[in-house]
Amino acid sequence: MGLREVKTELNKLDKEDLVKHISELYKKYKPVKEYFDFYVNPDEKRLLEQYKEKVTEGFFPKRGYKLKLSISRKAINDFKKLGTSAESLADLLLHFVENGVEFTNEYGDIDENFYTSIENTYSNALDLIDKNGLLDKFEERANKIVVNTENIGWGFHDYLGDVYYQHYE
Predict the structure, then answer these.
(1) How many CA atoms lie within 13 A of 72 on its CB side?
(2) What is the DSSP letter of 155?
(3) Nearest to 125 by CA among 81, 169, 61, 168
(4) pLDDT tens across 96-140, in order?
(5) Dist CA 118 CA 110 (whole Å)
(6) 14 φ, ψ to 5°?
(7) What is the reported pLDDT for 137?
(8) DSSP states of 41-90 as a string?
(9) Could you tell me the sign of the dihedral formed by the alpha carbons of 90, 80, 162, 108, in that order?
């Protein structure tokens, strides 16, 4: 079944039945609840702070010491689905990179997959920032990330520097 078939069936329902179905989805599925909570009360600053905490949790968990990038990546993907502004998404992406740099500086060299993930996120963030005319707003943070990677190997610093200078000539 596809979206067209679902829309056809939903169009057959009256308003009361639609509200009942949406209410059930709201109660059963956390992503649906989050979506409608944001839809009804679009407090993007509060939402951004909640998702920054989720991203940080993947790097620096409150319990244990194990790096779990999947938690951080999931937080970013879930945040994108809520339809937030490009500025907030860019902020969250840079937050991910900042946590990755801090983690490396605190615990030492990680593996290539880790660095690739951070590099790709940094590149995506600066592309988004550039595309949306936000370069001035994020220049200091973007530069600080590069500066904070000076002593990190694997070509990590060089790559981030190249990405930075592609956007900030």
Answers:
(1) 25
(2) T
(3) 168
(4) 999 999 999 999 888 889 999 999 999 999 999 999 999 999 999
(5) 11
(6) -85, 170
(7) 98
(8) S--HHHHHHHHHHHHHHHHS-SSS----HHHHHHHHHHHHHTT--HHHHH
(9) positive
